[in-house]
Design goal:
The protein contains twelve helices and no strands. By secondary structure, the chain is an all-alpha fold. Helix 1 runs antiparallel to helix 12, helix 2 packs antiparallel against helix 12 and helix 6 crosses helix 8. It is globular. The C terminus is likely disordered.
Length: 300
């Protein structure tokens, strides 16, 4: 395979393909946990916990019941992964060029945050309709307001509030954790370690970043689940923003954190697996693993 030039058009395309592989597969495999989390957010008395939920759904509905909503999950998060990773690398490079090499190095965390926020904003436009279908199927509402184009995008605002902070933390914390591991925990520069060791660093940093992601984005995730499950009668013709405000008020400062335990487990595992798959794909195509070798922003 011909060598892929960093920050070339082909490089960004490959990063997008890596994002498809990383996000679609991992989210699909976590469908049972995600399904239970969504049901607990809608009804916190549905199950006593993850183990109880898995046992009851598996016993009553079998494997098919555990993977309810799996298809829209796979499609939606594959598209989102393409945008999340591909656009992140693109905007990290573009914003770095705009800032100049010296500022890009000095303010690298700000660069990570800006690039990831822009990437997720665009990626969520592709994800939103599939997320709405997924939540509706998983929570089994009898009559939902998910009708037509507007219904599929009813949850776009809370989705942005959930996913943009999540992705900002995911990328900025990951890049800094990887750099910290090579700088403070290991004794040699990244390039002196084998690809296998580098991927081990990727997985560890990904799990730590994932825990932070879950905590930051959980309140908005609860709102998304409640909103997409709301019946037409309950909505009463109110605007999306009014419904969001009503849900937040009804949940209060305690119930809005319902399902955080399953989500920390799910997002920590999922984020670590995503980074591992993504960097493994990059290694297979002759590209370096992410982070730990200084900012490439502003360089051709």
């Amino acid at each position: 395979m011909a060598k892929i030039e960093i920050n070339s058009e082909k490089y960004f395309v490959y990063c997008g393909v890596g994002g498809i592989l990383a996000c679609g597969n991992t989210h699909f495999m976590m469908t049972p946990i995600d399904m239970l989390k969504c049901r607990l957010q809608v009804n916190n008395k549905a199950y006593r916990g993850i183990v109880d939920g898995l046992y009851r759904v598996g016993r009553e509905q079998g494997v098919r019941g555990l993977f309810v909503g799996g298809l829209p999950t796979y499609i939606g998060y594959s598209l989102q992964g393409m945008g999340k990773y591909g656009f992140y690398e693109l905007f990290k490079y573009k914003y770095g060029e705009m800032a100049g090499a010296e500022n890009a190095r000095r303010y690298k965390t700000s660069l990570y945050l800006a690039a990831s926020a822009t990437a997720e904003f665009l990626a969520d436009i592709m994800l939103c309709p599939f997320e709405a279908i997924k939540v509706q199927r998983q929570t089994a509402a009898t009559e939902t307001t998910i009708t037509g184009f507007s219904g599929l995008y009813r949850g776009i605002v809370p989705l942005w509030f959930r996913q943009i902070p999540y992705t900002m933390v995911k990328f900025a914390s990951f890049e800094n954790i990887v750099e910290g591991i090579y700088t403070h925990a290991l004794s040699k520069p990244k390039e002196q370690y084998s690809k296998g060791a580098q991927l081990g660093v990727t997985f560890a940093a990904g799990y730590m970043a994932g825990i932070l992601c879950a905590i930051v984005s959980h309140p908005a995730d609860t709102v998304v689940s409640k909103l997409n499950n709301m019946s037409k009668a309950a909505a009463g013709g109110a605007s999306n923003m009014a419904l969001i405000g009503r849900i937040i008020t009804e949940l209060g400062p305690v119930r809005i954190w319902t399902g955080l335990g399953p989500r920390i487990f799910m997002i920590g595992t999922l984020t670590a697996a995503q980074w591992l798959i993504y960097d493994s794909f990059k290694v297979r195509t002759g590209l370096p693993t992410t982070g730990g070798d200084g900012s490439r922003a502003g360089k051709a």
